[in-house]
Amino acid sequence: MKISIIGTGYVGLVTGTCFAEVGHSVTCVDSDLNKVELLQSGGIPIYEPGLGEMVTRNVAAGRLQFTTSTSEGVANSEVIFIAVPTPQQSDGSVNMSYIETVAREIADCITSYRIIVDKSTVPVKTAEKVAATIRRYRRANVEFDVVSNPEFLREGFAVEDLMKPDRVVVGVASQRPVAAMREIYAPFAAPFIITDTNSAELIKHAANSFLALKISYANALSVICEAAGANVQEVTRGMGLDNRIGSRFLQAGLGFGGSCFPKDLHAFIKISEELGYDFRLLKEVQNINASQMERFVKKLEEALWVLNGKTIGVLGLAFKQNTDDVRQSPAIDLCLRLQREGANLRVHDPQAMHKARPILTGVTYVDDMNLVADDCDALIIATEWPQFASVDFARARKRMRAPILLDGRNLLDPSKMEELGFIYKSIGR
Ligand SMILES: NC(=O)c1ccc[n+]([C@@H]2O[C@H](COP(=O)([O-])OP(=O)(O)OC[C@H]3O[C@@H](n4cnc5c(N)ncnc54)[C@H](O)[C@@H]3O)[C@@H](O)[C@H]2O)c1
What's the pTM value of the predicted model, to 2 decimals? Predict the structure, then answer.
């Protein structure tokens, strides 16, 4: 199948590459010239395990190419996927201008039947609006179908999730595009769910909000566990082994962040409000998430009293492990908060330092994770990179001014850290 992807970011690049990997011919379009030139010269703009080799292999095989021209993408494809940003606006609603721009660009250059697929996360009824826009601006009376095909990948595991999806959701307004969508996804051998477009769009917001709810549930439990002298990891393990509940997304920590959960939650609350429903349950999910950060900072203040003038080491800047994405990262929020209190920061992340530099200035970026603690009054684990468990904590303890270790991701063994002489605090344990 000949496919184009408009928007070559975390979703578009990985989706396009995985489509090429299974034999489709893919043109990835992006309006960012620097990004396209980097990709054309063999570079990869994001860190995603396994992606680099896959891009190289498929470019070499002639199945994957990059361009800045939407009309070239549209001309080269039977199916056009839209994977542009849908950022949050100040009132919590979704900024649809990227999607609308692409819809008009497509309208401007289609000359024969095309299937246009919304892969971006969008409010319910977007497919109808995209179709109306294309109808309004198309030059000729060309036929087309708009399909909703939400993406469920996790950054850091995106290739794995794309190659082995739990399910593929395809929302359609007519049967005509179904065969092509089945053909595109047949090599992935996943359950294929066909719905109307509105239901497909709602599935994505409902799923992300539910995952955020699970995290906030674990975080609320962590507060109870601390008050009761229980261990939240044991409680959530005991819950999660019940396969009606499941253990994933049931870990207490600093709270969720990233480019999806906070904005999708806001959007879903707003969409519900517009549809006449006050989704108070999800508002509480947001409140719990925000208070988790406050509670963590309070723990640090209890340990250090005054933060002004203190040197604090922070391990982790990405919003989670295995990615270089720092968009709405709790780790960065924490750093900015500590800076406002007057603390000096020594920070490290295995992949995200280059993306953090423009937004987190006035800190010392440390290349070696083992040296972050040097001369610090406290050390914080802010992102759950597994390699942080093998930091040389015995050495760190000796190099620190005060032995305070705050583990915002419950990554370390409390008794081992206490044996090393740390005053060790984590979440709900
Ligand atoms: N990142 C994730 O984990 C994830 C997962 C599932 C769904 N989503 C959703 O997918 C969508 C894209 O997210 P992302 O993280 O890939 O965003 P991104 O910012 O990484 O990538 C979007 C790309 O679109 C390009 N772009 C913007 N306008 C364009 C235009 N008119 N023509 C061509 N290119 C254009 C940008 O230059 C950018 O490279 C969002 O709706 C997001 O909510 C993201």
Answer: 0.95
